[in-house]
Amino acid sequence: MFINIILLIIGFILLIKGADIFVDGASAIALLLKIPPIIIGLTIVAFGTSAPEAAVSIVAALENSSAISISNVIGSNIFNVLAVLGINGLICSLPISRQVIRKDLPILCLSTILTLLFMIDGKFTRIEGLIFLLCIVLYVIMLIRYSLANSVEKEDEEKPMSLSKAILFSIIGIAGIIIGGQLTVDSAKAIALDLGMSEKLVGLTIVSIGTSLPELVTGIVAARKHETDIAIGNVVGSCLFNLLFILGISSSICPYSFEMVLYIDAIIMTAVIILLYVIALVFKKVDKKQAILFIILFIIYMIYIIYRN
User: DSSP for 26-45?
Assistant: First the structure.
């Protein structure tokens, strides 16, 4: 089991570093092609930090480990809201913009409820996956149109790197994500078997937290620099990407069924997303009080799923 733990750590390192390099490369490409900066933050950064979850879930789906695939998405979304925003909110108050409250959070709530409805029969079909993929395409189109209409040109902006270097960074990052995803799934399954743990528990804890580390690191850095829009946008965008793209692409590739106990976790995920939306509507921010509440709820959830197993 020691070897599997080492491989799991190596997998996480490759996932995190690969995602980091991919985001740098993709962001540089976007800047060089004069894509508005707001699009970079809400799409490339958010989606890039969710690349580890995508790699793990797609690999798991291809290997018929559906419990890891779906529990990774559910666990990551719960971790993103309760732990990432909780920790970030302790560092500094996180104002939530009108754009996020009026458009992004309602779309996230609807996507989460749609996920819950699709899960009610204990499986994800290829048709449901294609519906999710269509939804993420429509969301990105909406976001780009809004961003283009509200973007502000930055003059004399220094180019971060050459186009060839940016493309190379993106390719290296994707390679790291793919290899890391494979190592993470294989070693996590082996550890679960050795410890008598279920795949769904490993997916909800070890895998989901590990693959969400890019969101956590990005959020902490953004919060310390008081780039609060990035911290909030990264979490909301990542949660949407997890649901619509990751579940969409994995179930489109390989439709799968799952244990209905995961439906309880999906209900908890839905409640967490709705709680965030209510806090956004009422307080318009996540400060230390809400952050402490999020962290307490996350600890309670961890205790519950470990005890349940």
Answer: HHHHHHHTT--HHHIIIIII
